[in-house]
Design a protein that fits this description.
α4 links the parallel β4 and β5. The strands form five sheets. A five-stranded parallel sheet has the order 2-1-3-4-5, with helices on both faces. The protein has a five-stranded parallel sheet with strand order 7-10-13-6-14. It is built from 18 helices and 16 strands.
């Protein structure tokens, strides 16, 4: 005899249950309550039932994430119950269920503040999708309310917002390196706030009383960079009608911040190395050197180890500026910091009466990858604020490209023979995904993957390109 196969609980893989979510089922029919309770528990939700509106309101003294309520009930119908829930527990999603469907019923439910609308008999997959969406919306609503309470809180970096693990690591490094005089290299994608980190290091260090002098090496033509950095004597070149101190001398007693140091031409890299070794500069056209005493902080969006490897950046200069490295994470790696920053911008630009983030907007902000980082988020929220018509931002207030954006996923359909690939190909796809997430930084990708750079390059080669 064969063994009897045990039945497995239904799992909706497209709409998995939200961990720990609690659902309150309200229906004056005990059979319907029992059926919905069984379905929801099978989906993985903790479920409580109530057979009247007053009983449901009493049950809501405990926290719930979603309410499923019948519309036609005795002493208090579902619409009235929904209105009371919406007034007493704003943000708690109420899904209305009815045995018949009409336009008037739907309108009454939505006006009462209902989150969604289902008809009997309830399909299990539709129920799974609806409850998963509602529970996720409840999670986001709680997070938004928490972030609103925290707006205005201070961080070790003035102007920086967020408490993700990645940012806590940045705060910790700033605290530890600021009291020293060590050279710091700040690495991060464009728009992540590298200058904020540099200014925080200066402000918390022993040179805080001195000047903070900043220069973006990518913003100054190569022919003028040497004069900007080291100064020039009168008559050193056309239009040099007077002598001028360079930025190193101007930063004496304080900090000089060289942003996008990776854009510095090779010939200037040699001169900069000499200046850093001797703490003396020779202005263009001058025979005399001038001493200075300034802390050096640099920043780049480039992978300088790769630049050194490919002979575009001097190795000796790299080790001179890279005593301590601080990596500022891109926005896509900072989790709910995105919502905290968005809430901060709303409060800052719109004041206490500014619209809040709706759960649907919060979901879009979290799923978007933010190639422009914090600068792009600022632009997005300012646009939404300018277009907002309600007390909450809507998806339609966001830029057009975010309306249909979906987060990228690495998916292999193991049920389809045409999608089955070799382990080597799957590994290569994963490496490419990691590279995409770290902005093409091969050094960081190799560190995340636990590979050395040579191995990473080899694994990125297409199968036909690899040596036999």
């Amino acid at each position: 005899m064969g063994t009897m196969r045990q039945s497995q609980p239904f799992v909706d893989r497209a709409h998995p249950a939200i961990a720990g979510a609690r659902v309150l089922v309200v229906d004056d029919d005990p059979g319907t309550c029992e059926l919905l309770e069984t379905m929801l528990k099978g989906l993985g939700y903790e479920t409580v039932t109530a057979q009247s509106g007053p009983e449901a309101l009493d049950a809501l003294k405990d926290p719930f994430d979603v309410v499923l309520s019948d519309i036609r009930m005795g002493e208090m119908d579902g619409v009235e119950l929904c209105e009371k829930i919406h007034a007493e527990w704003p943000g708690l999603p109420v899904v209305m269920i009815t045995g018949f469907s009409s336009f008037e019923t739907a309108v009454a439910s939505l006006r009462a503040g209902a989150y969604d609308f289902l008809t009997k008999p309830v399909d299990r997959e539709i129920l799974a999708a609806c409850v998963a969406r509602a529970a996720k919306a409840r999670q986001l609503d709680r997070e938004i309310r928490r972030l609103k309470r925290e707006v205005g809180g201070s961080t070790p970096i003035p102007g920086a917002v967020g408490a993700s693990p990645a940012m806590k690591q940045v705060y910790d490094l700033v605290d530890r390196v600021a009291p020293t005089d060590a050279s710091v290299l700040i690495h991060g994608e464009t728009g992540t706030g590298k200058e904020l980190v540099a200014r925080a290091i200066h402000a918390r260090g022993p040179r805080a009383h001195g000047p903070f002098v900043a220069l973006n090496c990518a913003a100054v033509p190569a022919l003028l960079l040497e004069s900007e950095l080291f100064g020039h004597a009168r008559g050193a070149f056309t239009d040099a009608k007077a002598s001028r101190d360079g930025l190193f001398v101007a930063a004496n007693g304080g900090t000089i911040f060289l942003d996008e140091i990776g854009e510095l031409p090779l010939e200037l890299q040699v001169k900069l190395l000499r200046v850093l070794q001797d703490h003396r500069v020779r202005p263009l056209g001058s025979t005399h050197e001038v001493s200075f005493d300034a802390r050096l902080i640099t920043a780049t969006h480039r992978d300088l180890e790769t630049e050194v490897h490919e002979h575009r950046f001097r190795e000796d200069l790299y080790y001179r500026i890279n005593v301590v490295t601080i990596h500022v994470p891109p926005l896509r790696e900072r989790g709910t910091d995105v919502l905290a920053i968005a809430q901060h911008i709303l409060h800052q630009r719109g004041g206490p009466e500014a619209p809040s983030l709706s759960p649907s907007v919060a979901e879009r902000l979290l799923s978007y990858e933010w190639p422009g980082n914090v600068r792009e988020l600022e632009n997005c929220i300012e646009r939404a604020l300018a277009l907002a018509r309600f007390d909450q931002l809507t998806v339609q207030d966001l830029p057009e490209k975010m309306h249909t954006h979906r987060a990228q996923q690495l998916v292999v359909d193991a049920t389809s023979p045409t999608e089955l690939v070799t382990i080597d190909e799957l590994e290569r796809r994963y490496i490419q995904r990691v590279l995409s997430l770290v902005g093409g930084n091969k050094t960081r990708a190799a560190r995340i993957l636990g590979l050395d750079r040579r191995t990473l390059y080899r694994k990125l080669e297409a199968p036909g390109e690899q040596a036999e």
